[in-house]
Amino acid sequence: MIDNHQRNINYLRISVTDRCNLRCVYCMPPEGVKHTPHWEILSLEEFGRIVDAASDLGIKKVRITGGEPLIRKNILDLFEHILANPKIDDISITTNGVLFADMAKDLKNAGLTRVNFSLDSLSPDNFKDITRLGKFDAVWKGIEKAIELELHPVKLNVVAVRGVNDREFGDFVRLSREMPLHVRFIELMPIGECNPWAVGNFISAEEIMQQLQEEFGTFDIETKVTGNGPAKYYRLPGAKGTIGFITAISEHFCAKCNRLRLTANGQLRPCLYGKQEIDLKTPMRRGAGRQELAELIAGAIKLKPDQHHMDQGWTDRRVMSQIGG
């Protein structure tokens, strides 16, 4: 479906839970956040109904996120439901990877086509400091399993934070040279827990690229990495993988935004950083059918702004895990 700014909206990101088994420093406080009561969270069947309605409007790609989506009980049922919808041609997931290795084969059989891992450090000690609870070995095992099962492209999402992981950027580039992994450096966004210190710890994609060019020389532009995101990709000559940059702050990509976000409690957000949400849960639980849900989703698409306004600061009380990464 075409929005008011002539963008084709064909991508739905679904947060199936606001809970997470890690406590990343830029995402949530050490004690975590107050969880939404279970009855307020959509059931997997309700998520499936929304996907079906959205597919009638041209949604073809679905990404399952969280919180950490793999802690959601019976999550495979949702993948299988989406797989059965012939209008959906791509089912992906963003995960911290802690539980992925043991579930990978079942996920692929249930319809998973590709996977993004959130991984901000290749140092086990630094990884533990960033995530507070994470075990690097478990995540790495999941990454290796994804490659083994050919869930390509396998992407690593690296939130770039000055003073935290800025000395490891070269290590990620070397990793992309040796393995078929697609590293995406993501500019730190002033959302939730990281809002107070985002300015002082922010590193632009331009600065990262300058740093990498000083060490590695010239990168080739890469245009063949499958995905729905806004990353600009590059490749070292002869490398098995690529590096990419997601420039949400320094060079916003709103003119090409093709997505909607559904929160775990059934609120449809036309823009990650916008304040508008369309309630799908209440109408659905009052008996709204597929056509009515599609009309509500169509209304949300028409509300998509021309661009985000992150420069005005974060005013939502929720953190990223409560909105959907």
Automatic annotation (TrEMBL):
Q: Where does S-adenosyl-L-methionine bind?
A: 26, 67, 118, 189
Q: Which residues bind GTP?
A: 13, 63, 94, 155, 259-261
Q: Which GO terms describe its biological process?
A: Mo-molybdopterin cofactor biosynthetic process
Sequence positions that bind [4Fe-4S] cluster 2 = 254, 257, 271
- Which InterPro entries does UniProt cross-reference here? Aldolase_TIM (IPR013785), Elp3/MiaA/NifB-like_rSAM (IPR006638), MoaA (IPR013483), MoaA-like (IPR040064), MoaA_NifB_PqqE_Fe-S-bd_CS (IPR000385), MoaA_twitch (IPR010505), MoCo_biosynth_MoaA/MoaC (IPR050105), rSAM (IPR007197)
Q: Under which pathway is this protein filed?
A: Cofactor biosynthesis; molybdopterin biosynthesis
What the protein does?
Answer: Catalyzes the cyclization of GTP to (8S)-3',8-cyclo-7,8-dihydroguanosine 5'-triphosphate.
What is this protein identified as? Answer: GTP 3',8-cyclase
Q: What is the protein's species of origin?
A: Desulforamulus aquiferis
Q: Corresponding gene?
A: moaA
